[in-house]
Amino acid sequence: MSKLPKENRFIDLSDYGRPVASVIANALKNTVFTPIHLTLLFVVSGLIAVYCILMEQYWATAFFLVLKSILDAADGELARLKKTPSYTGRYLDSISDILLNLLILVTIWYCTKGSFVFTVLAFLGLQLQGTLYNYYYVILRNRHNGDTTSRIFENDTPIALKGEKQRHVNILFGIYQLLYGVFDKIIYRLDRSAVKSTKLPKWLMTAVSTFGLGFQLLLIGLMLALGFKEFVIPFFIGYSALIFVFIAIRRYIN
By the 8 A CB rule, do 35 and 96 touch? Predict the structure, then answer.
């Protein structure tokens, strides 16, 4: 199930795992497995990928990073199939993502003996890229009656949905705000007029989808497997320049 109505869908380069994720979700639809179980599984897959980096098993790293992306898509897919959307799952997913991203980059820094300052910059760039993609995507989903558990402005603690506890939502939202709040604010200040934009064309969303986490992890996995581990951190620093390019394009066409 897509997050957008059919007529508004675009080619999402970060969502390459969706077909397999759909198979997994459909297989688990009538079982006791919940979306949170799949979230926990993608955390395990990410941790195995980190271990593979330490062991210099880079093709295995690429496999588990791709698997992590597939399971990351499958948890939301299962939530939509079971009609059990939750803020608990949404925030747990995002918190797990950012912590795994940090761990992956720190592990690459450790193995390459590179600059820790550059590693921090790469992490900041990685997160700002993903935040811009999510910002535009959530605007599109809200505009076209798509999935709405992600909100354009994550300012206030949401009211728990059926089947989840408000206390869990409160705790996870607080952690989410601590980890993501600064990135959300930066991207909003860079492109605050996006929420009123009349045009977010499919070709632009496809281009911005290269900032999606699935595509980012695919790039990291391939660069490691092909022997370019020293270039991972510099690449994501440089690639962040496209944030300003995409924002400029978005403003121009509106």
Answer: no
Task: Work out the number of other CB atoms within 10 angstroms of the CB of residue 213.
Answer: 23
| 86 phi, psi to nearest 5 deg | -155, 145
How far apart are alpha carbons 50 and 44 in whole angstroms?
A: 10
Number of separate helices (H) and strands (E) present in the chain: 10, 0
User: Which residues are within 8 A (CB) of 83 and not within 5 positions of it... i.e. 6 or more apart?
Assistant: none
**Structure tokens, 47:** 């941790």
Contact present, 71 and 27 (Cβ < 8 Å): no
For tokens 């675009």, the residue is: 10
Tokens of 227: 């022997």
User: Which pTM does this prediction carry?
Assistant: 0.93
| Tokens 């009211």 found at | 159
Asked whether residue 188 carries a pLDDT value surpassing 80, the answer given is: yes
Dump pLDDT digits (tens) for 166-175: 999 999 999 9
Q: Which two tokens stand for residue 7?
A: 């007529």
Report the alpha-carbon distance of residue 163 to residue 120 in Å, rounded: 38
Structure tokens given for 254: 């509106």
Residues 61 and 97: their CA atoms lie apart, in Å, by: 16
- Give residue 73's Cα distance to chain centre: 9
* 202: confidence class by pLDDT, cuts 50, 70, 90: very high
pLDDT, one tens digit per residue, over 109-158 is 999 999 999 999 999 999 999 999 999 999 988 887 655 556 677 878 99
Say whether 183 sits in a helix, a strand or coil. helix
Domains and CATH numbers, the chain: 7-253 (1.20.120.1760)
Residue with tokens 């390019």: 245
DSSP state of 85: -
